[in-house]
Write a structure and sequence with these properties.
This protein is an alpha/beta fold. It is built from twelve helices and 14 strands. The protein folds into three domains: 94 residues, Roll (Ubiquitin-like (UB roll)), CATH 3.10.20; 112 residues, Leucine-rich repeat, LRR (right-handed beta-alpha superhelix) (Alpha-Beta Horseshoe), CATH 3.80.10; 120 residues, Alpha-Beta Horseshoe (Leucine-rich repeat, LRR (right-handed beta-alpha superhelix)), CATH 3.80.10. Keywords: Leucine-rich repeat, Repeat.
Length: 399
């Protein structure tokens, strides 16, 4: 190893007796979706190695990448040097449809979000939805406030006057800039929908939200959140947590305190891992972690004995927790589209046969009662085409 290192150093210094020493590192330019990605890599690396480097930068799985240089498709097994790539070489990356994880490469914002928020605040008087007295009285009587798609930029004053009578507050699909601490005054609220408002972390009072001890459903999907606080674990009555389509890079380990949680929706984020403490959320029935940056799952998934639906599509997963099929005996819907997991690997898991039987029975029941049919049947179909072909050939052989 030391000898190899010394040789490399001599090559970099121009010594070693070689008339034309090769550089130990080259920088190539990869064009993808209007972006240029600069990659520094050893020229003796293979094209497949380059694809692995590109995966976390583009969210495109290696098997879904087509690299083209000078009009030629680069071959996985060839080295970059043999492919005639050198310093400054330009490569075009073409992604196969669907073979991706996460939400694609990071791109520049079309406009500064904070500046837009300030503009929305000043425009409140113009955009404020009128709230008449009769509506306010109805809110107090029913405990249900529905203001979805009202072009709101802040929460109307009339909402706050309802105080402790509010059970459901739907503020989804607006442009609300800020959730103030006084949101905590809704002491008996059970359902809070804040999805699709474009909110940033710093404009949400988690102190107020996490004081809502009766809250059962919290939806924060389709915003610009990058983190969830550890205090989320104090919402011990929560049965549904929806945080899909944000920019989350992790989930707090305190999620383990949500022992009544049944539905966790966290798709289309930038999650690279899931805390092992999720195994303590033993009431979970449905989990959606699709379109993230996951390469593995904790073994504690085997503790989720009531889990029925698990969506892991569009991730870089190469395997599953070893006890998933054995211990999750109610699991009947598993989506692994566009992952690196193969059919041969799945057959090696203990409990695989029982899971496969449950899956088949579920789909058969859907057909028998004429529900599901084409669109919904496909929604629960977890296999991609190569697995369907393998299963078909296996069934034929067994006969």
């Amino acid at each position: 190893m030391e000898k190899s290192k010394e040789t490399t150093e001599r090559m970099e210094d121009g010594g070693g007796g070689s008339a034309d020493p090769s550089p130990s590192v080259i920088t190539v330019q990869v064009k993808f979706r209007g972006n240029t990605i600069h990659i520094s890599i050893n020229p003796e690396s293979t094209v497949k190695d380059l694809k692995s480097v590109l995966q976390p930068l583009t969210d495109v799985l290696p098997r879904g990448q087509r690299l083209i240089s000078k009009g030629q498709l680069l071959v996985d097994t060839m080295t970059l040097k043999a492919s005639e790539l050198s310093n400054g070489s330009k490569i075009m990356l073409m992604a196969s449809q669907g073979l991706h994880q996460g939400g694609g490469p990071i791109t520049k914002e079309a406009s500064p979000l904070k500046r837009a928020i300030e503009a929305k605040r000043t425009a409140y008087d113009k955009m404020k939805a009128p709230v008449d007295k009769s509506r306010s009285e109805r809110w107090k009587l029913t405990g249900v406030i529905s203001l979805s798609e009202f072009n709101l930029t802040i929460i109307p004053d009339e909402v706050w006057t309802c105080g402790s009578s509010v059970r459901v507050l739907d503020l989804s699909n607006n442009s609300i800039c800020e959730i103030p601490v006084k949101i905590g005054s809704f002491s008996v609220i059970q359902k809070l929908l804040l999805n699709a408002n474009g909110m940033l972390d710093e404009y949400i009072s988690w102190e107020g939200i996490t004081s809502l001890k009766s809250l059962k459903v919290l939806s924060l999907s389709q915003n610009h959140l990058t983190t969830l606080p550890s205090s989320l674990g104090t919402l011990t009555s929560l049965t549904q947590l929806h945080v899909a389509n944000n920019k989350l890079t992790s989930l707090p380990s305190e999620i383990e305190l949500l022992t009544q949680l049944q539905i966790l929706s966290a798709s289309n984020n930038r999650l690279s891992s899931v805390p092992s403490s999720i195994g303590n959320c033993r009431s979970l029935i449905e989990i959606d972690l699709s379109s993230n940056l996951l390469v593995e799952l904790p073994e504690t998934f085997g503790n989720l004995h009531y889990l029925k639906v698990l969506n892991l599509s569009n991730n870089g997963l190469k395997s599953l927790p070893s006890t998933l099929f054995k211990m999750c005996t109610q699991l009947s819907s598993l989506d692994l589209h566009n992952t690196e997991i193969t059919m041969d690997l799945l057959r090696q898991f203990e409990g695989w046969e029982d899971f496969d039987e449950r899956r088949r029975l579920k789909h058969q029941k859907q057909l028998d009662f004429r529900v599901g049919l084409s669109a919904e049947f496909d929604e629960d179909c977890w296999m991609d085409s190569r697995w369907i072909e393998e299963l078909g050939s296996t069934s034929t052989a067994d006969q």
